């Protein structure tokens, strides 16, 4: 999948308004033929995949601990096909699950994908979705080894299960952080959420005026973070190379605050997070100004960043300091101290979870 | 869950028409509180469960090969809450997935359950669903180790992933059957499908006349096969005890014909199935007469039996003959011979898949 340019995004915004030529209906095709069609690209490459698609279950051998995670994505709740092209959706659905595997310090190895689709979808549309799924498999080196394909009453529902091989030193849990451990985050925060705001605004304008030509050039990074997020497989490799074993780790799907509070709760510690240390992309900062919203608030609660948040021992500081992929944003304290944000003005404010509400 | 008696089924048919007292809405509760509420009963017991619910992923250790399978169940497509109580749905959703694990000759060990629910469901309704899920876990000795909980735009969608530990001799695939192997099935066939027909008929009558008191006594077995199917964990144990290693195995979810054809295709063999050997329950036979439908046709294409269909070497015949749980229903032939049904009148008819159509 090419990187999204502004022209591409314009096309995306426009494509759903176009009348499509008549295409292959799923009823015509039947379930088994559809599965064959969608999975013919699913060759297996991982040594741990003993048998892939085509039996009652897949057979794996991880030679040690296996990690497994699953997520459900519902049209109209988690994605809007009005500004999420199907190929990107397939890619993203895989990536968000792999992110959970990397958050265990594990190597992602296999996925299973189930889809339920209403008859408004054609074979070609579902093939687009699977093109994204296969691309994600290729990009991250995981095998598609199973799943289910069925009809839905309304819309598209996706369920992805990801499996991985835990490191020999054991999976990294949320519960291992200790008082004085450093709190570290990969990449930058908030951009995916702002990308969604930009797309939603353009979509509204487009509805009113289909001839409107949005200029998305100033928003390319934000929109790409929303439409084509990546999971931080590289960070797991980087930490291994640096010989740093995180004491606790989680991925950031619901916003930084919410994830910090999960770490604190599971590890029974407190935390000090420093506002001025939170990594923000310059484009994110300038668009927050344009939208007249507070960048820290969005970085804390925006969600969908899929960065890794982890704690390391103080003595590991020298190994990670100055790494452009990692920011030390605070440190853990005792449970009694609670979880706090230290603002640029040196105010100390209790951290609150303002994560994305599913209901 | 108690065995369904006729009175119970009457209650089931009636309960959905009742006005329920106002109950806890999911919006009030929020996602994290809902997850806590639903999973507090999910204690882990399997030695292979290293960490269960509560992290980015579950951690397992199967000390050898792992098998994994997943299924999606959509309201209005796979189940109708008009005659499927939520507790039974939860139980069945787990059972149909475990059936896939047993069909690999494996021991089911863990499940992950994702649900998407619209706001028409109350907390109490979802707790009923999970009561069935937890009961199935207890009955089959598997741990609930993860999942996802989210809202849907419409109705209830469930996705269950099941994991298991393959036998030391390797997972039993669909592809291992050879010419001359015996074809064996557990239990009896067609009853679950007829149970659904009975429930659908009663539901129609009930809609027209809510005071109608259906007499479901003559249909108890059929209705129970539909509403509370069981997976044949016992057969995996039985074969082990008999020292029989099936050459190929599949579970019967889409009807006997369809599954035989899968075995033939994957194993590159043909088959002769003998009509007079297909095991049918007396209640099934008599209700087929009442509904004026052909019992063989329904046994071949009915679906949802969740029995195990497998092949064994000729020399294993003595080990299985006369076992009340197992019926030898035919034998495999060369691929060139094709797959055929030999009728009671000695006619030889090509087998056709008339499995349940998802689209």
Tell me what you see in this structure:
Two copies of one chain form a homodimer. Helix content of chain A is 35%, strand content 23%. Chain A is α+β, with helices and mostly antiparallel strands and 359 residues long. Chain A has two domains: 160 residues, 60s Ribosomal Protein L30, Chain: A (2-Layer Sandwich); 169 residues, Alpha-Beta Complex (Phosphoribosyl-aminoimidazole Synthetase, Chain A, domain 2). In chain A, the strands form three sheets. A seven-stranded mixed beta sheet of chain A has the order 8-10-7-11-9-12-13, with helices on both faces. Chain A has a four-stranded mixed beta sheet with strand order 3-6-4-5. In chain A, strands 1-2 form a two-stranded antiparallel ribbon. In chain A, a hairpin with a 5-residue loop joins strand 12 and strand 13. In chain A, helix 3 runs parallel beside helix 5, helix 4 packs parallel to helix 5 and helix 6 packs across helix 7. Strand 2 of chain A pairs antiparallel with strand 3 of chain B, so a sheet runs across the interface.
């Amino acid at each position: 999948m090419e990187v999204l340019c502004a022209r591409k995004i314009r096309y995306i915004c426009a494509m759903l308004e176009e009348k499509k030529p008549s295409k292959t209906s799923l009823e015509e095709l039947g379930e088994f033929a559809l599965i064959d069609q969608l999975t013919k690209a699913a060759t297996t490459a991982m040594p741990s995949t003993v048998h892939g698609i085509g039996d009652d279950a897949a057979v794996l051998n991880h030679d040690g601990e296996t990690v497994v995670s699953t997520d459900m994505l519902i049209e109209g709740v988690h994605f809007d096909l009005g500004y999420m092209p199907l190929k990107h959706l397939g890619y993203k659905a895989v990536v968000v699950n792999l992110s959970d595997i990397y958050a265990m310090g594990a190597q992602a190895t296999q996925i299973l994908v189930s889809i339920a689709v209403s008859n408004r979808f054609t074979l070609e549309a579902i093939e687009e979705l699977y093109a994204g799924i296969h691309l994600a498999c290729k990009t991250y080196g995981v095998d598609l080894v199973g799943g289910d394909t069925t009809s839905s009453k309304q819309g598209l529902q996706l369920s992805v299960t990801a499996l991985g091989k835990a490191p020999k030193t054991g999976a990294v849990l949320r519960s291992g952080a200790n008082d004085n451990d450093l709190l570290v985050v990969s990449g930058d925060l908030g951009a995916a959420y702002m990308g969604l705001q930009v797309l939603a605004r353009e979509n509204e304008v487009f509805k009113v005026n289909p001839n409107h030509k949005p200029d998305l050039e100033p928003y390319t990074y934000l929109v790409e973070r929303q439409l084509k997020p990546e999971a931080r497989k590289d960070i797991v490799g980087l930490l291994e190379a640096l010989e740093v074993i995180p004491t606790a780790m989680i991925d950031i799907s619901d916003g930084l605050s919410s994830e910090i509070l999960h770490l604190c709760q599971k590890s029974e510690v407190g935390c000090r997070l420093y506002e001025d240390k939170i990594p923000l992309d310059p484009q994110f900062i300038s668009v927050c100004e344009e939208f007249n919203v507070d960048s820290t608030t969005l970085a804390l609660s925006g969600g969908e960043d899929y960065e890794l948040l982890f704690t390391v021992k103080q003595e590991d500081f020298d190994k990670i300091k100055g790494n452009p992929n990692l920011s030390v944003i605070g440190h853990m304290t005792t449970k009694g101290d609670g979880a706090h944000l230290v603002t640029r003005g040196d105010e100390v404010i209790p951290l609150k979870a303002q994560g994305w509400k599913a209901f």
